Amino acid sequence: MLKKKNLHTLNIEEIAKIGGLSTSTLHQKFKAVTTLSPIQYQKKLRLQEARRILLTESANVTSAALEVGYESLTQFNREYKRFFGLPPLKDIRTVGNHSKENINESAYVDSLL
Predict the structure, then answer these.
(1) What angle do CA 45, 30, 78 make, to 5 degrees?
(2) Pair 31, 37: CB distance under 8 Å
(3) Backbone dihedral region of 69: left (phi > 0), alpha (psi from -120 to 50 degrees) or beta?
(4) How far is it, in rounded angstroms, from Cα 32 to Cα 1?
(5) What is the Cα–Cα distance from 82 to 85, expressed in whole angstroms?
(6) What pTM was estimated for this model as a whole?
(7) Cα dihedral value 56, 58, 62, 67, nearest 10
(8) What pLDDT, in 10s, does the model give residues 19-43?
(9) CA angle 54, 55, 57 (to 5 degrees)
(10) Cα–Cα distance, 80 to 112 (Å, whole number)
(11) Chain-centre distance of CA 82, in angstroms?
């Protein structure tokens, strides 16, 4: 288990109550707008933020997982691979290589102009 970061989490019942909705109505309305359930949406946001952290802040996988609220590194790795198609380190290396290729191609095109 990873050390839990001090995050305030809202549960669906609290959000529904604040909005004056039943839990099931909130789920229906949320899915109608986002095409995802609230938990799927939260996972998507967490994973996208973790990827951003890994790409831009040179953080390690454990730090990124903790920062976005994961308690289990195993669960983070499993969900990351399911969402992006590769485990975190392989994905970041692949994305990083594509970014370098795009920079090199852009520099080559600029030199031709």
Answers:
(1) 35
(2) yes
(3) left
(4) 35
(5) 6
(6) 0.73
(7) -40
(8) 999 999 999 999 999 999 998 999 9
(9) 70
(10) 40
(11) 12
Q: Which CA distances in Å does 107 have to 56, 87, 93?
A: 21, 30, 21
Residue tagged 């975190």 (tokens): 88
Helices 23-34, 38-56: crossing angle, 10 deg rounding: 50
Amino acid 55 reads L
Phi, psi (degrees; rounded to nearest 5) at 33 = -85, -40
Q: How far apart are CA 59 and CA 65, in angstroms?
A: 10
Beta-carbon contacts of residue 81 (< 8 Å; ≥ 6 apart): 87, 88
Angle 73-84/88-112 helices, nearest 10 degrees?
A: 40
pLDDT per residue as tens digits for the range 50-96: 999 999 998 899 999 999 999 999 999 999 999 999 999 999 989 87
Rounded to the nearest 5 degrees, what angle is found at the Cα of 51, between the Cα atoms of 46 and 52?
Answer: 95
Total length of the chain: 113
